[in-house]
Amino acid sequence: QVQLQESGPGLVKPSQMLSLACTVSGGAITTNGYAWGWIRQAPGKGLEWMGAIKYDGTTDVTPLFKSRASIFWDTSKNQFSLHLSSVTPEDTAVYYCARVIPYGLDAWGQGALVTVSS
């Protein structure tokens, strides 16, 4: 059974970069057919899809975040990461990583709260 775990700083200052990692166990992130995504949920708001990295290393970031976000991986650690630059308090959210299958998301991390504040 695949498991995902987010890690990273819980507090980031405005204008700095938010960096999160997702460590995957129980399956290789290079397994054909899967993608690995990032989703966030700001306080009082719905889930917001940010983007994903596929099993072959190609990435797809939602236009809303394209100018600020990058997703990359470290296959030696079976880990993929999110960098979000120039953060503002509006980027305060719980950030989730998840495994993407053709018709949805079938495994989630527990979520990591990131607060943007000075």
Keywords summarizing the entry:
118 residues; mainly beta; 7-stranded mixed beta sheet; 0% helix; globular
How would you describe this protein?
This protein has no helices and eleven strands. The chain is an all-beta fold. The strands form two sheets. Strands 2, 4, 5, 6, 9, 10 and 11 form a seven-stranded mixed sheet that branches. Strands 1-3-8-7 form a four-stranded antiparallel sheet, with no helix packed on it. It is globular and about 40 Å long. It starts with a strand and ends with a strand.
Radius of gyration: 13 Å
Question: What amount of the residues lies in strands?
Answer: over 45%
N-to-C order of helices and strands:
EEEEEEEEEEE
Percent range of helical residues: under 10%
Number of helices: 0
Net shape? globular
Structural class: mainly beta
Uncertain segments are none
Distance between the termini: 39 Å
Structure summary, number of beta strands: 11
Mean pLDDT level: 97
Largest β-sheet summary: 7 strands, mixed
